[in-house]
Design a protein that fits this description.
OB fold (Dihydrolipoamide Acetyltransferase, E2P), 52% strand, 187 residues, mainly beta
Length: 187
């Protein structure tokens, strides 16, 4: 158990039966009335952000997460299988646990970091910040079509579609930011 005095950015707490990460917090002491703590919390199950106010001295449960490096093996329907690189145990994760935007960047044998709660249940999956993927299909870019740069959609080998500059052709290996899905450059 911890109080609002123990809050810090990045702390994971159990609140209303779910796990939340404290994104930011602010202690407020108004001229009239009791002090309180205004927080922005990110729900670990789906990544949604919500704001909440706690009274000063309110107690919450702190959750200790352990991080393990795991290797993505394969998918089977709605389940995605990861293997612990130390113990070789396999852990299946659902599409909801991974998040839809992350699935498009998973490649076989990719190393990821998986956080587990105290009971050993997987909570979050952290992909590498940059991946290299091959462009499978894109329209040919025509020079002079735009005034400033321009972009076009390109389908990558994993099936995800990203916006790329006009000069990128099919077969080109590109770098993509996994957090935003933005084109970073050629590999």
């Amino acid at each position: 158990m911890a109080t609002t005095a123990d809050f810090r950015n990045g702390l994971v707490i159990r609140w209303n039966g779910e796990l939340y990460e404290i994104v930011s917090f602010q202690h407020v002491k108004p001229g009239k009335g009791g002090a309180f703590v205004r927080t922005r919390l990110r729900r670990l199950s789906d990544g949604s952000i919500q704001e909440n106010t706690f009274r000063a001295g309110h107690t919450v449960d702190i959750v200790r997460l352990s991080t393990r490096e795991m290797q993505y093996l394969y998918s089977d329907g709605n389940l995605y299988y990861f293997m612990d690189t130390q113990s070789f145990d396999q852990v299946p994760l659902t599409r909801e646990q991974l998040g839809d935007q992350r699935i498009g960047f998973l490649q076989e044998n990719m190393l990821v970091k998986v956080q587990f709660d105290e009971e050993g249940n997987p909570v979050t999956v952290e992909l590498p910040p940059v991946v290299e993927l091959r462009v499978v299909e894109t329209e040919p870019g025509v020079r002079g079509d735009t005034v400033s740069g321009g972009s076009k959609p390109a389908k990558l080998e994993t099936g995800v579609v990203v916006q790329v500059p006009l000069f990128v052709d099919a077969g080109t290996v590109i770098k993509v930011d996994t957090r935003t899905g933005e084109y970073l450059g050629r590999a």
